[in-house]
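Hi V.,

Quick status before I head out on leave. The structure for the redesign project is tokenized and pasted below; the design run finished overnight.
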């Protein structure tokens, strides 16, 4: 049993966990970060980064320039049959980001800030007591903190045990699959990126995309399907895109690794609260993923910042639990619209993208900025 007592224990060293740990440490708190897996988990996965991500990254000690790749200079939309096409407007400040590099930068920043990185530590259970929280790790090791932040991903079992989510609740989880081709981008970042989105690939909320940066290309699908079904779905989608010349010539998925992850799109709004006893749930573990675009990076960074500041305030109060409640108000003020499903039937809206320039602009802002339709 460990005799060390941390101000804050953080479960999970992904984007949300590492950012929360780094921000809390920079606020003067003693933080223990339980790293279930390596920081480069997800290496190779390419995503796009919201322009406002610069602020929480700065709070975590990571300059945007260190993790932002090429800027997305153009976005276009295609119908599922690839017969209709519409150009969206250029939206400044949206950059490509490589997930593994972002995680490593945040973990390095956390170390620099004095975070105690506890490697290969997966919490199998937590016990929230009146004055502290105890994390029981695989192998029997126990760690104690005054407060707890749960950021261990979409498959978190701890979130349900804290009472912030009904364990009987079974929200629809989407699976995101992606394959990346071509050489990694260099430091020059001179080549602009182009995003092409194929709408309604499976149900109104399914979509595919092709993200091209010079000779590098990522092709992906987001659909409400089991992970094991997605490989063949992605191969078929890529073949259709190649036939329509949306992919660089010679691109084929035969020998390319397909990566998959669960995407709890917009499910954060189904929770009554993300505040448990002396604990907060953030990132994918709390369903903080944009409902339309599947963006989880910006919500992860925002909820990390909100959690670190709520925890810091709670640690200064006699009754910490009351102060923790501010977390729900903080994240809702910044993310609620981005997480909310569109209020209008997408079956009605989607055809308008190809006939109405205003609708194409709204869809572009929804995908790249998280604006609600």
């Amino acid at each position: 049993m460990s005799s060390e007592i941390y101000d804050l224990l953080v479960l999970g060293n992904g984007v949300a966990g590492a950012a929360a740990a780094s921000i809390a440490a920079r606020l003067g708190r003693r933080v223990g970060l339980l790293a279930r897996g390596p920081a480069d988990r997800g290496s190779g996965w390419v995503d796009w980064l919201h322009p406002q991500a610069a602020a929480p990254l700065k709070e975590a000690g990571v300059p945007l320039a260190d993790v932002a790749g090429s800027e997305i200079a153009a976005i276009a939309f295609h119908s599922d049959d690839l017969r209709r096409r519409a150009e969206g407007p250029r939206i400044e400040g949206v950059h490509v980001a490589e997930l593994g590099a972002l995680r490593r930068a945040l973990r390095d920043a956390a170390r620099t800030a004095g975070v105690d990185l506890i490697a290969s530590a997966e919490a199998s259970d937590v016990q929230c007591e009146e004055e502290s929280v105890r994390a029981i790790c695989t192998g029997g090791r126990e760690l104690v903190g005054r407060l707890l932040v749960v950021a261990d991903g979409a498959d978190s079992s701890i979130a349900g045990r804290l009472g912030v989510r009904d364990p009987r609740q079974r929200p629809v989880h989407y699976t995101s699959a992606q394959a990346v081709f071509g050489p990694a981008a260099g430091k020059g970042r001179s080549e602009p990126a182009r995003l092409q989105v194929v709408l309604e690939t499976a149900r109104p909320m399914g979509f595919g995309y092709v993200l091209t940066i010079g000779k590098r290309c990522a092709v992906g699908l987001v659909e409400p399907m089991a992970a094991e079904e997605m490989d063949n779905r992605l191969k078929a989608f890529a073949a259709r895109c190649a036939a329509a010349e949306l992919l660089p010539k010679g691109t084929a998925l035969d020998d390319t690794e397909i990566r998959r992850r669960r995407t709890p799109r917009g499910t954060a709004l189904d929770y009554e609260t993300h505040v448990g006893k002396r604990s907060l749930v953030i990132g994918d573990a709390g369903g903080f993923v944009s409902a339309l675009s599947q963006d989880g990076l910006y919500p992860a960074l925002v909820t990390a910042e909100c959690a670190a500041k709520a925890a810091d305030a709670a640690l200064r109060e006699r009754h910490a639990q009351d102060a923790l409640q501010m977390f729900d108000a903080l994240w809702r003020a910044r993310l609620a619209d981005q997480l909310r499903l569109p209020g209008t039937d997408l079956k009605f809206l989607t055809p308008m993208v190809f006939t109405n320039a205003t609708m194409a602009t709204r869809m572009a802002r929804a995908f790249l900025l998280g604006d609600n339709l």
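Above is the designed sequence. The domain at 5-369 is CATH 3.50.50.60 (FAD/NAD(P)-binding domain).

G. will cover questions while I'm gone.

Best,
W.
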